[in-house]
Amino acid sequence: MHRRWSAYLLVWVGVQHAAGAATDSYRVTLDLAGCRNDQIQVTVQLPTTAACTECRFVFPRSVPGTYSLDRYGRFITDARAYDANGDSLPVSRDEDDIVTKGKPARIIYTVNDTWDDPKGKEVFNPTGSNIQCDTNFVLNFHAFVGYLDGYKHLPYEVTIRKPQGFYGSTSLRRLSQSDTADVFRARSYMELVDNPAMYCIPDTVSFIQNGTQVLVAVYSPNKVMRAASVAEMLKPTLAAVARMLGTMPVDRYTFLFYFAGRHQRDILGDLSFGALEHPYSSFYFLPEGRSADETARFMIQSTAAHEFLHILVPLNLHSEEIADFDFRSPKMSRHLWLYEGCTEYFQQLARAQDTLLSPEEFVRDLLGNMRMLQYFYRQRPISLVELSQRVLEPQYQKLYPVIYAHGPVVAFCLDITIRRLSKGTLDLLSVIRTLMHKYGPERPFRDDALFDEFSALVHPSLREFFRRYVEGTELPPIGECLEALGYRYSDSSQVEMYEFSSTSISLRRNVEEPIIVTRQPGNDFGFRNGDTLVRINSMLVTPENKYNLVSRFIWSPESADTVRVVVRRAEGEVELRAAPRRIYRTMRYVFQDNPHPPAEALALRAAFFRKSSQ
């Protein structure tokens, strides 16, 4: 999955709870400058209009799009509360919340970060928090700040005291800044948690892409990744998205990147790399690697496209369950297929309609998703609606990754079905845009009505598609849809492949040099333990490309051509040669081009893989 790497919240300003409440607010201070032992102190001046005698200061159990119960309040310690006279109030902890006897005017507590706290290992790093006193702070505000139960719609004024030389990158509205502190304003708790920040010695680049002001902020402990190079990687992706959409949907956007170094074992955890997206920003936790190589480029481009495209769904099209998210007792929507599946599909389609992904690569990726989906289906058939609604339950948590395989295939088949039913006048993106105009960020749809809405816009028979493939457990009709694009498709086929009869080798871990480790004697090339790869087919082997070249020419050769490998040994360089053998294997979900496709299929394929002129 790159573990997807996803999450969302939308900007929603709710009804105020009392007359005059609009001018009352939470005043929060995060003392980064006073950081000690990877902990910071937070002080919250509470709104005066809040009415409670036993008051509960809530910390989220979950945030939208994380699809897990992470209980951020368990990282809060040393809680104290004071009334308007400055007198101490009795404090207790209940379900990770702070509960006071009497009405508090001020609450003070200490925050541990999730990244290197033993209790936080199961928290997906892009949704968590990082406190490295001298170098970096990742502020997903739901891990630092809560709200009084019943009063999450009141505004927040947040003061961040920062170490000397640190800069805070964020899309949150900045009221003021100085060398020692920044002050921000959020209209509600939802808007606050929807605008993460990253504080460190600045490495930022700003540019304009199709009318959108883009800020790229990078933290890379070994300075391997820099904001300027990351920005260059992002520009083609953003241009492809703009061409697909016709226009950029926001006037500003912030990309926050934390690249973890290999030495940072305390925060790498289970390698939970990925991202958390928001309406005006997204945060990324990715491996630093040794250079800005092609792997990093692909990961940045594909992940950034996915996160950015969440601007369509759920920001501008979402159900009631998301519109006013219940952080204390979250309720899941039926429509993960829309929020995550369609978004992943659109990032693939945007790149395929540009020059970043060929049509063949696009189809190959879809069929790779089908193979992954088939693996899960061997365990049990999966309804996307059931998975969506029950995703917080432990048994469904294990199935969550399937949404990034199942969802895009369903979205592709839905797109083709809409195009065929409407005779080319509609597609999935245009239907979503129509629904966005009907609803939008402040008007949610009813969760159980969306399929009927789609069908009313397209054709009554579309309702059967949702019944079978989204509510039901039938596999999406991938073959029928690929054949509509003029491809030949087979559920199972004998495929010609190549392999060496004996190349049981690996590369030594934890060293930069490409040193071979053999697991058996007599391999085809005559490799020895300790051989250092120098060249493969005249291409120089580097720490960055070693796995790619070994996979391409030795582990999974692409032809029967002889492979020439130069290795370095104690006695000098030696050239080794071997030729792979031809074999045939049964593969699931195989496609090839149809040499004589119908004219209708050619027309549909041309429209589908169009190069947008907008």
Features:
614 residues, five-stranded mixed sheet, alpha+beta, 17 helices, 4 domains, 29% helix, Neutral Protease, domain 2, 28 strands, seven-stranded mixed sheet, Immunoglobulin-like, 27% strand, globular, disordered N terminus
Quick overview:
It contains 17 helices and 28 strands.
What does this structure look like?
The structure is a single chain. The protein is of the alpha+beta class and 614 residues long. It folds into 4 domains: 21-200, Sandwich (Immunoglobulin-like); 204-315, Neutral Protease, domain 2 (Orthogonal Bundle); 332-488, Neutral Protease, domain 2 (Orthogonal Bundle), CATH 1.10.390; 501-579, PDZ domain (Pdz3 Domain). The chain contains 17 helices and 28 strands. The strands form 7 sheets. Strands 4-7-2-1-11-14-13 form a 7-stranded mixed β-sheet. It has a 5-stranded mixed β-sheet with strand order 16-17-18-20-19, with helices on one face. Strands 5-6-3-10 form a 4-stranded antiparallel β-sheet, with no helix packed on it. Helix 2 packs across helix 4, helix 2 crosses helix 7 (336-352) and helix 11 (403-421) runs antiparallel to helix 14 (462-471). Residues 1-22 have low confidence and may be disordered.
